[in-house]
Structure formats: C-alpha cells, structure tokens
Amino acid sequence: MTDDEALDYDPNAYQRPSVAVDLVLLGIRGGEPAVLLVKRDAPPFAGRCALPGGFVGIDETLDAAAARVLRDKAGIATAHLEQLYTFGAVARDPRMRIISVAYLALLDEAAFAAALDDMPGLLAATITVPWPGETGGAVRIATPKGAVPLAFDHADIVALAMLRLRGKLDYSDVGFALLPERFTLRQLQDVHEAILGVTLNKPAFRRRMLDRGWLAATGEREGGTSFRPAELYRFHRPLINRPM
Amino acid sequence: MTDDEALDYDPNAYQRPSVAVDLVLLGIRGGEPAVLLVKRDAPPFAGRCALPGGFVGIDETLDAAAARVLRDKAGIATAHLEQLYTFGAVARDPRMRIISVAYLALLDEAAFAAALDDMPGLLAATITVPWPGETGGAVRIATPKGAVPLAFDHADIVALAMLRLRGKLDYSDVGFALLPERFTLRQLQDVHEAILGVTLNKPAFRRRMLDRGWLAATGEREGGTSFRPAELYRFHRPLINRPM
DNA sequence: TTTACTTATTATCGTAATGTATATATGTCA
DNA sequence: TGACATATATACATTACGATAATAAGTAAA
After folding, report:
1. What's the pLDDT tens digit per position in B93-114?
2. Which InterPro entries match (chains A, B) (predicted)?
3. Cis previous bond, A203, omega within 30
C-alpha cells in the first residue's frame, strides 16, 4: 500500500475516517428506471430520503458489507452487485468524516416489488435522465408526489449509477440482471430502452442480441397475451467467449 | 449515508479502518506499457516493489490525496488521474486493516522518464498482458532483470488498471494522456497498439480517429526522420459532443 | 541532379454490421 | 371466419471497417 515509514502504521498516528457502503438498488418499474430509498428520521437530513447503507466492519470485506446491507435493509438474499465508485468529499457528512464506497445492485421487477412489499421502510422513486447518451450530469429522482431530494451526496451516486449502467449495457450482460430468468426479446428491449432513454430498432436489436450468443431459446412462449405470444429466452454465458 | 441510528455515529462505536490511496503510474516505454514502482525497505514485504501510495488525511479528499502522492512520491505536478477501484480485502495488509482506493495516473513518455530521473526511489517495470481483449486476469510485471513480485495486492491493482485502460481506450480520450501535446497519427496508433496488445490496421485507424473530431492538424510536421515526416496533431475536445 | 528508399497519406474495393421498411406468421377475440 | 395486434422473418439501403494498392514527400546515396 503505502509508505515505508513505520510511523505510518502507528494506529494513533492518524485520525481515521469511517468507511461505509451505500447501495443503489436499481430496477425497472413500469418501463422506467427506479431506485429503492429509505427515509431518514434523524438528523442530519431528517425527513429526506437516502440510499440504504451501513458501515464497513473492521473484519468485513467491502463486498461483504454491501451484501449485508442488501440483506438487512432490503431483505434481498442475492442480486447482481458491483462496486461503483468511492465518494470521499470531506464534508459529505456534516457530523464526521465518512468515506463511502457506492455499490450498484440490479433487481428484476419481481425482486424490486418484493423488497418494496416486505421492507416497510423502503420506498421507490423513479429516475429520469435528462441528458443524452453518456453525457453525464444530474438525474431527476421523483415519486408520483413530486421530486425527492436525497440526503448527503446520494443524488450524485444515483446519477453516476445511471451513467455507468448506460455505458455497460450493451457490451456487458448487466441487462439480464434486470430481467427474470425467462424473458422475451421485447422485455429485453424494453429494459435497454428504459436504461438508455431511447427507442431502439426492433429487428436490429433482435439480430444483435441473437448474434451475441447469450440467448438460449427455451421453446416455451409467454402467456396471457391476446396476440401472438413471444418466445421465452434464457440468458446463458457462452463457454467460448471469444472465437479467435 | 447509512444508518439512521444515532449510535452509528459515535466515533468510538466502531473500529475504523485506515484508508489509503495507491497510484498506478502508467506510461508507454519503448512501445510497451510500463509502471513506476517504489522499493520497500521495511516489513512487510521488505525488498519487494509496491505502488506509490499514502494515507488519506482526515481533512483531505481522495482525489487530493492521490494528487499529493503523485507530487510527493513521483515529483509530478499534474497528470491524468482517475479513480480505479477500491480494494478492501480484510488481510491485504498483514498489520492492520487498510482499505485502499486505487488511482490510475497516465503519463506521457517524457513525464515518465522525468519522474524516473528525478526521484531516486522510483523504478520502472514493463507490463505484459497475457490475455486477449478484455478477458481480464493477471499481468506480468518485469524489468530486464526478471519478474518483479509486488507487495500486498498491488499486482491485482495493476492488472485491473490494464483491463480498465483497454476498455476505455477507444471510446474515451484517455489515449491522449499518454502522448505529448503534439503527436503524429503513428504515435497515437503505437499507444493504442501497446495498450490493446494487437496490431491495428493503419488506414482504418486513421479514418476512425479523424472522423471522431478530436484531432486538430497543427500544420507542422515531425522532424528528425530520414523519410517523409508526418503531420503533427493536437487533441482538442469538440465543442459539440454529439450531433443530434 | 537523379535515383533508391522509407514512411505518410490517399484511394479503391470487398465485406460485415446496422438501419429501415415490408411481408408473413400466430395467437386472441368478436 | 375474419379483424386485430404483435411476433418473426426477409429484403434492401446505408454505413463502418479491413485489406490492398497507389501516390506523395522527405532523406540519403549514386
């Protein structure tokens, strides 16, 4: 890590910051990106919403801390979880120095709804991205009642999550983390359109996804439609990643 | 950030980890990616090489800490500096819990050589990437004398830096951070080939780069060649990013 | 002065990827 | 049985890209 001077390792030589993890629990609700928040009832920012988070234990990995918060605060046993960025502004928490490692958790629609139902403290807000492509910038976080101002720098964290997601969506497999195990091509396209904020060309999207080799047809079809049902696909990582 | 319970903010309620920054000082030397290292002379890992790093001050931003390490340990006033990832394995330092925020610093060939000359503690090692594309995995770090085993988990950090760099190279402007202010298209292609570990098609590369709109011809030409000199270009971010 | 040589730069062509429009298939429901 | 809505497949235009060849512009040697 760092210095060679023994002084640097004297536990009392430096004041140490606290380290926390904060989770962006992201899903698609009604065709729009949405995030799960907790309402704060103690200062600072009492009454405001915040991302679920918690301190990192002294004997706990960052990933383990994120998984624990996912379990304890959202009641979710497993989800796609990836480290996003570490926020270290000095006064991001007015009380004390807290460095926060932000994580992105992706939930499919059922998991999102289940968390919302099972955990009384959680509430859902819609994310609207006002910038095109991967420009970056602030996003609007709102419920049907209106805009939701977030505590701390959590709005920046959500904005960064959207930027990262847009960047990774079409070269990685993160899109599938937002879908149930079996899904139609239309559902997959809906997820991409919701994240990217654009409408995509259907045949071209279909071709690209099928050519990628990540989709396995199940032979089953969706039900409950009053029109021709679509084929259900399953995500499977190809064994040979890169044919060279 | 985190909990709503006031207990969470009692400074003595939790044992706090130390937080450090570690820098991957990366440049291209002789057509190969290279990294600047410091030799440790105290345990643990005495005699091994490590990334330059330092603890984050209680009143210091993460970015500021990275810039300070860049200045104090590498003698570099300014460079492209971006946060890479935060490493939080519990026993990554055998003495105490240290969470490290890794930064990637990109140096052009002159800055790399100057740092190596001016700071006696620094040494340069070549990075060899054995995996194709963005597969990921370990990299080989070596000097002409042989492989250089790194202290702590620093080899993982360097490997991640290469993975990140490969991913960002051709859709972002990071490649220009590895070049002097004025450069030829051949130099730009050399940088891309060194990072990606492949040989690229020259006319196609030229077309793509020019069409991107990031290159401004200076009208000047390189000197010192015994053949036709190439035009010198300058990087300039276009004012209109995305023609919609 | 001319020619050889080396690389820069431009042009040409074929192929693959993608956008767009249209046609056909398949289910429900009146 | 036919209207309807969407899935799926096909055809064609446009664009991006790889490969190769042709031309340009310097130095150095004959």
Report:
1. 999 999 999 999 999 999 999 9
2. NUDIX_hydrolase-like_dom_sf (IPR015797), NUDIX_hydrolase_dom (IPR000086), WH-like_DNA-bd_sf (IPR036388), WH_DNA-bd_sf (IPR036390), WHD_NrtR (IPR054105)
3. no
